[in-house]
Amino acid sequence: MTTTGTTDADERLHPIEDPSPHWSDSLYFNAWDPGTDTFLMTRIAVLGNDGRVTGGVIAWVDGELSYAYGRELQEIPPTDWDVMATDGLTYRMLQSGQAWAVQLADDDTKAHLEWHGLSPATSYDAHPAGPLPRAVAWGHYEQSCRVNGDLVVRDRTIAFDGYGQRDHSWGYRHWAGLHQWHWVTGFFTDGRAFNLFEVHTHDGATSVNGYVHGPDGDDYVTTVDRVLDRDDDGGAATLRMTLATASGATLALTGARAGASVPVRPAPDQPAVVHETPIRLLADGVAGFGIYEHLVTEFD
After folding, report:
1. Rounded to 5°, angle at Cα 199 from 198 and 200
2. Which residues lie below 8 Å from residue 99, measured CB to CB, with a gap of 6+?
3. How many CA atoms are closer than 13 Å to the CA of 192, on its beta-carbon side?
4. DSSP code per residue over 83-113
5. What is the distance between the alpha carbons of residues 42 and 27, in angstroms, rounded to a whole number?
6. Which residues of the chain have pLDDT under 70?
7. What is the pTM of this model?
């Protein structure tokens, strides 16, 4: 079963539909370069009701947390997602639905990386079991990509040639309204990729969304069998997981921590922590890499 795609209108800033200061319209990109074992993730969010834009980058090289960047603008530029910047961090839509660039200029750390879709983006709103819970997003889609470009970090120039993923999410994100989420992204050297978005709410409900990308495109994930072992710092330590798709296919994989876990507090007024942990993956003997994002609320 193929997934449902997106339109040019989806790629734009979305109208604000809730008065909460946590209403957000955000882009997220990650990338892995197998040749240098470099992993990078970056996110920008337009907080329309709060009149702010936040952006950040985290990079791991050879398993070490090598670079972090964060900026906040107290105004919203009069642009759409065609070009959006927070000081030295700029996001550019090169081709709607297909190609994006992220550029960084921060003293000696520089980057120009481009994400080119391997297949059309997958709408999580059109999942056969329904969209993500509204506490997570009012709209969301993701796309597996090839990633190329240049990254200069710690006096090292990396000619990036790898894999990655991007997403676009909008809505009022109620972090404390969630018990947990397990947002896991991975890519393999044979071109396969996956994303799992497993959400647990305080009422005991669980939703599963995401897809597996293969030679024929994307296939919605419908069920997951997942065992996560956490380290003392709260981040992922090891992972055993099998994803089943709408077409009846399965992807079985294992994972192990590949670098320092970074705890992020997404909203100072809400008791939630997101643990961002790079993981090394293996599926059918094929090596891969990804990120395990585990959200927990502190009163659970």
Report:
1. 130
2. 93, 114, 115, 116, 117
3. 19
4. EEEETTEEEEEEETTTEEEEEEEETTEEEEE
5. 8
6. 1-2, 298-300
7. 0.95
